[in-house]
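pasting for ref
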Amino acid sequence: MTKKIGARRPDLHAGLARALDVLGVIDAALLARRFLPPPLLPALTYHRLALPSPGDSFDRGVVDASAGEFERQVALLVRSFTLVGVDELWSYFYQGRPLPPNPAMITFDDGYRSCHDVALPILARHRAKAVFFVSTGHVGGRRVFWWDKISYLVYRSARRRLVLERPAPAEYDLEGDRAPVVRALLSVVKVRPRLDVDGFVAEVARAAGVPWDERKERQFADELVMTWDHARALRRAGMGVQSHSRWHRVLHTLSEPELDAELGGSRADLEAALDESPRAVAYPVGHGPAPGSPFARAVVRAGYELGFTNATGTNLLREGLSPLHLRRIAVEPGRTQAYFRASVALPLPAQRAGPPT
């Protein structure tokens, strides 16, 4: 879901990437890592591919790359790295088996249909593997992701102001740039404990004066969200399909029963649909569990042995790396190939500041 909620800070890192590329440092690092024991594991996070159409009012913050950008990035990764999946990583942590030389991961969050329609053909063409973390309730229930609903309602509203009565009275100006309004509403979902998300979205729809019903939801879900048939096609193609919770609730805001429903429920959905048990979960909104917290206990109780955050950076493969707190690098559209190469080849350019997702 939306990850770029603040201003980007690309200038310093983009300039550094250009300089490193000109000096040959990136090429040297990629070459050296082919012959050294794997000290680093970059794991890239994508969500939705292909630029939205002009009339697309859904959340553009989840569009990470065009099809062409993604193809160039996959080609680089296949040429310079050994792409690994959940099984190799599980064997590394729990059986002590070494990872292959120069490992890297491609991951997708949420379960957008473009994972099947756009990403899969590109991955197959390059014989590359990826792991897809899906929000199982949306896939099985044919529901639109809550951030896409909120974005749609705000951008399609004909009103000048958005006046909400719950969960607390609030008013937003719709006459100027509406992107800050979308970000503010998404923040309510991200930080408010035990929020009734469906009720909140219904309140936004009422305040926006935009009709929303089951027929429209199913129509948009069919356009945006993969089906279980798509997920099974990913598996047949050798891709991993793992958990991103059931309804993409923000896990650190939930009670223990709600945590069990999100994490255990998603596991049960995946077992029923794919006839296999998931080993990994990518935490919605990217926050990992604090040690000893109800969130941490629920992850273990649900049977997950690998956990992926959106804490930005490359994983250093050394003693003490927690299998339930693996970092990832968020991909952003419009980046130069030099910037992309630097972010996967070297740890420092990947350490961007900003809130996790």
